[in-house]
Amino acid sequence: MARAARELGLKPREFELAVQLGEVRTVAAGPDGRRRVPPEEIDRHKSSEGFPEALRSRLWVVGTAEGAELMGVGAARFTRLARAGCFTPVRFYVNRYRAVVWHYLAADLAEFADREPGLLTGRIPALLRTALDEHSDRRARGWRARRVDQLTAQASDAWQRAAATAAVLDAPELAQVVPDPGERAYLIALRPELTRIRSEVPAAREVIESLVLAEDPDEIDWYRHCLTTTLPQARATRPAPGTDGNRKTAQAPAAEPEPRQCDAEPPAARSVRPGRLWSWLRGRR
């Protein structure tokens, strides 16, 4: 992975984001869960038009001040739009005041500005004001949804997909959906990291841990549904290690007769997807 980052001319955090976003494809490198970048993926990028500037433009990340300037709005309006879930953060950090600082893809902001110019000026529409009244800040929710989508897409089997969904449920919620301790332990062992941010400060660590877990009742219900839908698929491939597949399946919650399509993202958390306005972005860097 380190060599791939050097070959692509990306800094470590840029490369990590590229892998998360699927811009750089990785494959499993062994049973320990490590991943690598195939040589043909490096060749694909190097032979693409505009490399490496085009790739780095797709990974251009901005904070509130730069994002507001990019969209041509004030910081206060940008923050209200972000809180309402108009665009989704791709990463965050906790500053020394234990405040969460969100970062966004410039591509997301560019597409949103082009698609919804009416939201950049004038009075905030009633629909957005209502959304802010119901959920004062959707940024953490949107970030979780985005990360679960990414981790689900990288999963190599149904158990790993289930573990990605289970990663945002706390212990009591997970126990209700997965009553079998063997299956629950297996999901925990497979559970991927939503963030690699660490802190030695207890208060900051608590903030980070809280951001990883679903919090609103409807969000929790959605992930519970997704996990309930995925578990039968996982059990059909193989039982969890150390469990009796037939007996445990009977104990677990039954899937819905006609389950809804579950793409691991709560409907209320959907936001603008990254666009393809790369020339526009490169002209403003």
Question: Your description of this structure?
Answer:
By secondary structure, the protein is mainly α. The protein is built from 16 helices and five strands. It has a three-stranded antiparallel beta sheet with strand order 3-5-4. Strands 1-2 form a two-stranded antiparallel sheet. α5 packs across α6, α9 runs antiparallel to α10 and α10 packs antiparallel against α14. It is globular and about 60 Å long. The two termini are 27 Å apart.
Quick recap:
It comes from Streptomyces ehimensis. By secondary structure, this protein is mainly alpha-helical. It contains 16 helices and 5 strands.
Please report the total strand number as a whole number. 5
Spatial extent as radius of gyration: 20 Å
Strand content: 5-15%
Shape: globular
| Biggest sheet architecture | 3 strands, antiparallel
Q: How many H/I helical runs? A: 16
How confident overall, as mean pLDDT? Answer: 86
Residue ranges: pLDDT <50 for 5 or more in a row?
247-261, 267-285
Structural category is mainly alpha
| Share of helix, binned | 40-55%
| Widest β-sheet, arrangement of strands | 3-5-4
End-to-end C-alpha gap:
27 Å
Q: Which series of helices and strands comes N to C? A: HHEEHHEHHEEHHHHHHHHHH
